[in-house]
Structure formats: structure tokens, C-alpha cells
């Protein structure tokens, strides 16, 4: 039996045994809602990553095959797609805050995503090779993801008190759902799509999304989700906004109208980069403005003898102080600062799917028991390590908390960056000191991914959890959307850094020694120096950020 199929079968059996264990061991500590959201998000990510596993391959080998420069076209569309996928959460979050509430936003997003996957499957069967249908399907997934992904994360925060000690643990378990989905998807949809039929692969992604949607919909009709995430009452009271239409109807119409525009933009990748930069500047500007306004409000309150908490010196707040406008403003500033460190983290972490895979292909000794391990298989190490380590991290945070030794959120970011940087130290050392014939032993890659994954677990779920702690309740959805923008930015920068290692930078007759030198130099500068430097800068900022968090851990 071939290696991928064996891995696929083992993967499913492992997950089928692992998930019940995780649920059973955490059932008493966490509300049921965690496991519902875990399941829904697991299936949504199954669809998202299942489709992504096939996307570039399908474009370059089938869809654009007859066109000139198929590969660079495919990569261009792929870049625009990933950037826009994390651009739309800003809108999705805003709509959830103001109009839909989390539940409705999640359902609407899930429906759009599911349709997108199914039309992608149809594009190859009924409407063979229709470019319009192809781009339209991607647009459905982009817009749908904008409603689904940020809001399911914000919604999870609703089931815990603002600064609940279980929160980081809950998000870590939730994050495991994300990665179980991506692990199974990459194996399964990749296999079905490449070996059997592309469109069955896409269809399978659609079925995954349908499972997640069904799970969420059924559970939202029971008591598990309580009365949380419902449509904000003010919306119900508000009458028609324009042309006799109420706000929700306008959102539905607006989302549908956005689809052809998004579809068109996918084809022009420069516009997307511009859009990304403009949106980032706009959003960061807005967050800072909001923070300054809140601080000003606090000052006005002081002048008019308002709430005592508002004029206590920084960091010396009483309980009352933690809810003051000053505290809310300061917390938004913390989000803004961490936004940039989050982007740096992803810019280097995301080398995994790009330059690191090519590096593994060219410069890693991959013979194992007489067969050569394919370079792409190394990418399943990250979700695998997450599955195994997420419960451990969730447990460690709680234990440390009990001993009053849990690192604060900014400190966890420092740890995340430091571990990412150490991962690069490992691979650079392997390349510089232990390579034979310009081939690095496999163990260095495995250890590097282990450190990258531990870094991810220290920072990424904690970041999601942080947003639900630090945002004023009324704009959680929006701030979460803004947070996703830093991922979008990180992915974009990842592409630029990846290009530094491209074969085009070397002369035609370059040997494996030359490529190895180029990789290790790039990783030394960006992965080690920049990342560890960022960790150091953040470390210096930690005391200030902690003050600005006003009592939130
Ligand atoms: N792998 C993560 C996921 O798909 C990447 C990510 C982290 C995306 C945080 C958004 C926010 O969820």
C-alpha cells in the first residue's frame, strides 16, 4: 500500500481515538459549548485547508495549463486569495457586532463557504473549466470565511468571564480543533484530489463544511449555546434602513453583490496588495484613534469629577478602574502593538508552506528505511505536534496559574517568538555544521518544526483569547477581524521573504552547496536575527504593556 494512503488511514484512526480522549479529560473543566465550537471549527478548517491543499496544484496543472506562465499565474491568484481571506474578517466582525450577532454571522458564513466548495466541484464536472465559476467559488469562500472564522473565535470568548483563568486553555483546545481539521484535510483532500479526481477533492471539502454547519445549527437549537451570540436587541427594534429594507437584509444583499467584485479582484493581484496596505493603515489608525478617544473621555470624566477609577495613576487601578474608558483605551493600544509582533511571527512561521518545503526538497537528507520521504509530508508535522501538544499547553497554563506563575499574554508572545527563532537556530546550525554533501540530516527539520509549533501554541491561541479579553464588548467582533489582518500581512511578508531564497537569485549552474548557503543565510538573518530581535524588543515592552492591560492577565 502506498505511503500516503497508509498515513491517511492512520491519521483518521488516531484522530478518532484522540478527540474523545481530549473531550473526556476536559469535560469537567469547560462548558459544553467549547466542544461544539471545536467540532464546527474543525470541519470548517477541514474544508478550508482541504481546498487549499489542491488549489495551486489544480490551477497550474489544469485550469491555467493551456495559458502562458501557468505557474506564476497560479501563485499570483493564490497570493491574492490568502490575503483576501484574512481581509474580510474585518467586515464579518463588524457585521456580527452591529447587526447579526455571532450565531447568525457564523451560519451565514458557513453557508457561503459550503456553496463555494460545491461550486468549485461543479466547475469541473458540469461546467468544465469555467474560469468565471472558479473565481466566483473562491469569492464565496473568501466572503464566507470573513463571517465564519473570526466570529466563531470571538463567540468562544463569550462562554467565559472576561479574564477567566480557563480562557487561554479553552482557546488552546479550540486551536487543536483547527489543526485536526487541517491535518486530516491535507491528507485526505490532497489524496482524493490528486490521485482520483480534483473535483471529488473539492467536493469533499464542501461535505466537510456541511458537517460543521450542521453541527453548529443543530446545537444552536439546543440549550448548549444558552442565550449567547443572538441578534443584538437594538437591531430588532430598528426599522427599515433604506428602501424598506432592514439592516440584515442589506447585509445579505451586500454580501452577494460583493461576490463578483471579489472574483474579479482575484485576477489582479497588485490591487489586493494595495488594498491590504491601505486597510491595515486604516484599521490601525482607527484603533489608535478609538484608544485616544477613550483616554480623552477618561480625562473629561476626571475634570468633571467623574468615576474615581478614571483618574488613578496607571496600573494602580481598583476593580472599578478596570472598566474605565482609560483602561479600555489602553488595552486597545496593547492590541495595536502586538498586531505587529503577530505579523512578524506569521511572516517567518509561514515559510513552512513555501521556502522551507523547497529547502527540504533540495537540501535535506530524506532517506528513511530505504525509501525517500516526500518533502511535502513534513508539513503534516506541524498539525501533528499541535494535536499532541495542545492539551499539554492547556494544562500547563492552568497549572502555572494555580501557582501564580503563569506568564502574561505579552510574555507568552515573547516566548512564542523566541521558540520560533530557536527553531531557525536549529535549522541554521544543521545547515552550517552538520550537512554532508550539502544535505542536512532530517532530524534538524523535525526539531525545527517542533520548536515552531511550540511557538505557535504559545502565541496564536493566546492571541485569539487575548482579543476577547482586551476589546470593549461592543467591538469584539471588529477587533478580532482586525487581528486577522495581521495574519494577512504576515502571509504577504512571508511571500516576500520566501522570494529571497528563490532559485532565480542564483546563477544557473548553482550547486546544492550554493542553495544551502542561500537558505541558511536567509534564515540566519530573518529567522534568527529578526525574530529573536523582535522577541527582545517585546520583552523590553512587556512591563509597559502589562500596565496598559489594567489588571487583565
Ligand atoms: N492555522 C491557523 C488557523 O487556520 C492560522 C490562524 C491563526 C488563522 C490565527 C487565523 C488566526 O486558524
TrEMBL record:
GO terms for biological process: oligopeptide transport. GO terms for molecular function: peptide transmembrane transporter activity. The keyword Transmembrane applies. The keyword Signal does not apply. The chain crosses the membrane at residues 6-25, 76-96, 105-123, 129-148, 169-193, 199-220, 241-265, 271-289, 332-349, 377-398, 410-431, 443-464, 476-503, 523-542. It is found in: Cell membrane; Membrane. It is a multi-pass membrane protein. Belongs to the major facilitator superfamily. Proton-dependent oligopeptide transporter (POT/PTR) (TC 2.A.17) family. NCBIfam families: yjdL_sub1_fam (TIGR00924). This is Proton-dependent oligopeptide transporter, POT family.
Amino acid at each position: 500500500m502506498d505511503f500516503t494512503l497508509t498515513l491517511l488511514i492512520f491519521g483518521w484512526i488516531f484522530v478518532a481515538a484522540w478527540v474523545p480522549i481530549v473531550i473526556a479529560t476536559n469535560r469537567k473543566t469547560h462548558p459544553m459549548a467549547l466542544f461544539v465550537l471545536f467540532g464546527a471549527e474543525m470541519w470548517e478548517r477541514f474544508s478550508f485547508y482541504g481546498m487549499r491543499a489542491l488549489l495551486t496544484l489544480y490551477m497550474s496543472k489544469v485550469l491555467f495549463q493551456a495559458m502562458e506562465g501557468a505557474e506564476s499565474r497560479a501563485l499570483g491568484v493564490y497570493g491574492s486569495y490568502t490575503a483576501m481571506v484574512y481581509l474580510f474578517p474585518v467586515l464579518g466582525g463588524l457585521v456580527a457586532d452591529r447587526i447579526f450577532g455571532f450565531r447568525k454571522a457564523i451560519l451565514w458564513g458557513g453557508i457561503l463557504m459550503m456553496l463555494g466548495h460545491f461550486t468549485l466541484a461543479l466547475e469541473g464536472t458540469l461546467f468544465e473549466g469555467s474560469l468565471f465559476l472558479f473565481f466566483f467559488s473562491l469569492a464565496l469562500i473568501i466572503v464566507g470565511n470573513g463571517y465564519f472564522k473570526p466570529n466563531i473565535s470571538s463567540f468562544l470568548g463569550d462562554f467565559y468571564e472576561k479574564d477567566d483563568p480557563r480562557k487561554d486553555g479553552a482557546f488552546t483546545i479550540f486551536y487543536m480543533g483547527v489543526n485536526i481539521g487541517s491535518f486530516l484535510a491535507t491528507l485526505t483532500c490532497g489524496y482524493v484530489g490528486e490521485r482520483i479526481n480534483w473535483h471529488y477533492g473539492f467536493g469533499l471539502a464542501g461535505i466537510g463544511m456541511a458537517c460543521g454547519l450542521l453541527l453548529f445549527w443543530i446545537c444552536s437549537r439546543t440549550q448548549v449555546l444558552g442565550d449567547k451570540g443572538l441578534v443584538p436587541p437594538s437591531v430588532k427594534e430598528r426599522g427599515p434602513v433604506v428602501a424598506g429594507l432592514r439592516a440584515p437584509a442589506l447585509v445579505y444583499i451586500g454580501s452577494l453583490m460583493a461576490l463578483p467584485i471579489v472574483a474579479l479582484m482575484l485576477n489582479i493581484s497588485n490591487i489586493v496588495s494595495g488594498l491590504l496596505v491601505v486597510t491595515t493603515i486604516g484599521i490601525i489608525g482607527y484603533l489608535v484613534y478609538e484608544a485616544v478617544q477613550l483616554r480623552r473621555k477618561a480625562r473629561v470624566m476626571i475634570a468633571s469629577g467623574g468615576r474615581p477609577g478614571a483618574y488613578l495613576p496607571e496600573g494602580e487601578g481598583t476593580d472599578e478602574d478596570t472598566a474605565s474608558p482609560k483602561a479600555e483605551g489602553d488595552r486597545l493600544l496593547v492590541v495595536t502593538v502586538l498586531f505587529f509582533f503577530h505579523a512578524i511571527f506569521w511572516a517567518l512561521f509561514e515559510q513552512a508552506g513555501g521556502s522551507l518545503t523547497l529547502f527540504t526538497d533540495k537540501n535535506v537528507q530524506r532517506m528513511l528505511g530505504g525509501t525517500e520521504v516526500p518533502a511535502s509530508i513534513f508539513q503534516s508535522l506541524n498539525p501533528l505536534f499541535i494535536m499532541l501538544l495542545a492539551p499539554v499547553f492547556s494544562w500547563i497554563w492552568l497549572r502555572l496559574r494555580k501557582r501564580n506563575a503563569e506568564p502574561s499574554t505579552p510574555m507568552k508572545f515573547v516566548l512564542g517568538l523566541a521558540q520560533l527563532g530557536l527553531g531557525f537556530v536549529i535549522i541554521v546550525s544543521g545547515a552550517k555544521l552538520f550537512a554532508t554533501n550539502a544535505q542536512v540530516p532530517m532530524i534538524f527539520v523535525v526539531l525545527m518544526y517542533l520548536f515552531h509549533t511550540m511557538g505557535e501554541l504559545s502565541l496564536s491561541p493566546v492571541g485569539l483569547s487575548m482579543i476577547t479579553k482586551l476589546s470593549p464588548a461592543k467591538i469584539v467582533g471588529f477587533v478580532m477581524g482586525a487581528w486577522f489582518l495581521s495574519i494577512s500581512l504576515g502571509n504577504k511578508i512571508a511571500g516576500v521573504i520566501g522570494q529571497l531564497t528563490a532559485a532565480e537569485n542564483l546563477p544557473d549552474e548553482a550547486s546544492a552547496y550554493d542553495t544551502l548557503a542561500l537558505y541558511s543565510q536567509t534564515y540566519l538573518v530573518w529567522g534568527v536575527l529578526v525574530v529573536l530581535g523582535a522577541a527582545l524588543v517585546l520583552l523590553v515592552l512587556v512591563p509597559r504593556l502589562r500596565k496598559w492591560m489594567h489588571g487583565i492577565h
